[in-house]
């Protein structure tokens, strides 16, 4: 069995377990009352259960178990420390997030939990050991600096995914695209001999992809379950672990390029430092904006608001689903920008489709709400005109009658009204009133019914 087939099996098993476990956890959340109600800072309209992160963890455990049993991936489990460390950190991160879902914890306590999980990864060997800087080369980090950078990397990834999780399916879709892109990138690194044999990064990336694919059918708008902080922090931790396993290490032979020329391209050597910033560019950019915005307003960094990118898209006029799809599309374009140098050797004309797609998406993002509103206004105006009853045509033989001239209340159907004796018109003419009938009607009027001027009557 080839390595690609083995990864495909892991992907399918992870997705199936997640999609089956999600409705079970949904029912458990409803029974336990672990639901989130609508409020002023959320956009969903009905109470929705949480605990989607627990279903994703079950998918992760199933994927790791299947990978462990496949001979094609046995090199990853040659040493047990890294796989077990990732498992322990994932379970602990889900516990931290789920605790915040069930019983809200303070921001410092949540940060402490994230630091604890990052520490587990570091001591398990999933950390930043090498730091590659353009025009400088490879820098071997000391232990204390390696620990600090690894913890900050995990903190940044987890908070980026957690902040972008504001619309149904948004975080799961973005992470799915990013994980799939990173998996393709790591597979190419393996083919070029840049990564050490048994690197755990491709396995984590493909499992994360399966988790998101299995969860999306239940989470896309209208969502029937949310991943909650537990799921968002779990995805952030796993993406951080996968990117650190690539960005912080390469085959030692590739460090000394005078001995072995691994890829012949500077891109492969330095790209791990920048690729996560591209494939997760949307949540990272949103996080940076949130920090700057809250610092400007002198509010806490952890304080919630409705000024994120997805909220702005909805205020711009895009609906819930369209806002999600637009941000998915931006993530896909950034991911394509990463993969082009790998699969097309960095040729300049290969970037043209990405540029055209980015221009079209930008125009659609900005201009489409205005087009929709203009069409809606025209439709509303047309509907209003249709609701106004049209006056029946009235034949009028008066010539040069001044505007506002009083019309006769009795007369023929032609609106002439000069005298009753002319009421011979067509079938639509009013009934003829004789002088005797008019006198009888006047005699029936009482003095109180006639219009009088009563200056003393209160108004």
Structure report:
The chain has 459 residues and is an all-alpha fold. The chain is 62% helix and 3% strand. It starts with a helix and ends in a 16-residue tail after the last helix.
Write the layout of secondary structure elements.
Blueprint: H1 3-32, E1 35-36, E2 48-49, H2 52-69, H3 81-102, H4 107-124, E3 130-133, E4 137-140, H5 143-164, H6 170-192, H7 201-219, H8 228-247, H9 252-255, H10 266-279, H11 281-296, H12 309-316, H13 320-343, H14 352-387, H15 435-443
Antiparallel strand pairs: 1-2, 3-4
Descriptors:
single chain; 459 residues; mainly alpha; two-stranded antiparallel sheet; 62% helix; 3% strand; elongated; disordered C terminus
Taking Cα atoms only, what radius of gyration do you get, to the nearest Å? 36 Å
Which runs of at least 5 residues are low in confidence (pLDDT < 50)? 255-266, 394-430, 446-459
Tell me the total number of β-strands. Answer: 4
The fraction of residues in strands falls at under 5%
Chain oligomer state: single chain
Looking across the biggest beta sheet, what order are the strands in?
1-2
Based on CA inertia axes, which overall geometry fits? elongated
SSE string, helices as H and strands as E:
HEEHHHEEHHHHHHHHHHH
Average per-residue pLDDT, rounded, comes to 77
Span from first to last CA?
A: 97 Å
Main β-sheet description: 2 strands, antiparallel
Number of helices: 15
Helix percentage range: 55-70%
Category by helix and strand content: mainly alpha
């Amino acid at each position: 069995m080839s390595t690609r087939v083995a990864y495909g099996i892991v992907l399918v098993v992870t997705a199936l377990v997640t999609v089956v476990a999600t409705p079970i956890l949904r029912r458990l959340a409803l029974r336990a009352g672990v639901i989130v109600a609508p409020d002023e800072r959320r956009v969903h309209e009905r109470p929705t259960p949480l605990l989607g992160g627990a279903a994703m963890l079950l998918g992760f455990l199933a994927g790791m178990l299947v990978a462990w049993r496949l001979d094609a991936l046995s090199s990853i489990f040659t040493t047990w420390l890294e796989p077990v460390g990732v498992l322990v950190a994932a379970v602990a991160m889900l516990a931290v997030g789920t605790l915040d879902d069930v019983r809200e914890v303070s921001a410092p306590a949540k940060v402490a939990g994230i630091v604890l999980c990052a520490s587990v990864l570091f001591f398990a060997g999933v950390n930043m050991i090498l730091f590659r800087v353009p025009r400088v080369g490879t820098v071997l980090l000391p232990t204390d600096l390696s620990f600090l950078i690894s913890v900050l990397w995990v903190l940044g990834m987890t908070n980026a995914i957690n902040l972008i999780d504001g619309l149904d399916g948004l975080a799961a879709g973005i992470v799915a695209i990013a994980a799939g892109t990173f998996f393709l990138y790591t597979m190419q690194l393996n083919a070029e001999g840049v990564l050490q044999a048994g690197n755990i990064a491709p396995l984590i990336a493909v499992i994360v992809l399966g988790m998101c694919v299995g969860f999306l059918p239940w989470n896309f708008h209208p969502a029937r379950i949310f991943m909650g902080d537990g799921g968002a922090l779990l995805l952030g931790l796993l993406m951080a672990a996968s990117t650190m396993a690539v960005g912080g290490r390469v085959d030692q032979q590739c460090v000394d390029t005078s001995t072995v020329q691994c890829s012949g391209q500077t891109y492969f050597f330095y790209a791990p430092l920048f690729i996560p910033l591209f494939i997760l560019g949307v949540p990272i950019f949103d996080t940076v904006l949130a920090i700057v915005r809250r610092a400007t307003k002198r509010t806490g960094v952890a304080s919630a608001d409705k000024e994120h990118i997805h909220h702005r898209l909805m205020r711009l006029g895009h609906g819930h689903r369209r806002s999600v799809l637009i941000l998915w599309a931006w993530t896909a374009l950034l991911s394509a920008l990463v993969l082009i140098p790998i699969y097309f050797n960095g040729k300049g004309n290969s970037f043209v489709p990405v540029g055209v797609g980015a221009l079209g998406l930008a125009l659609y993002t900005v201009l489409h709400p205005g087009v929709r509103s203009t069409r809606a206004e025209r439709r509303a105006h047309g509907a209003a005109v249709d609701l106004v009853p049209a006056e029946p045509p009235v034949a009028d033989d008066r010539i040069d009658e001044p505007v506002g001239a009083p019309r006769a209340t009795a007369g023929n159907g032609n609106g002439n009204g000069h005298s009753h004796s002319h009421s011979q018109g067509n079938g639509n003419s009013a009934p003829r009133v004789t002088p005797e009938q008019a006198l009888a009607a006047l005699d029936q009027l009482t003095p109180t019914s006639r219009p009088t001027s009563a200056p003393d009557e209160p108004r």
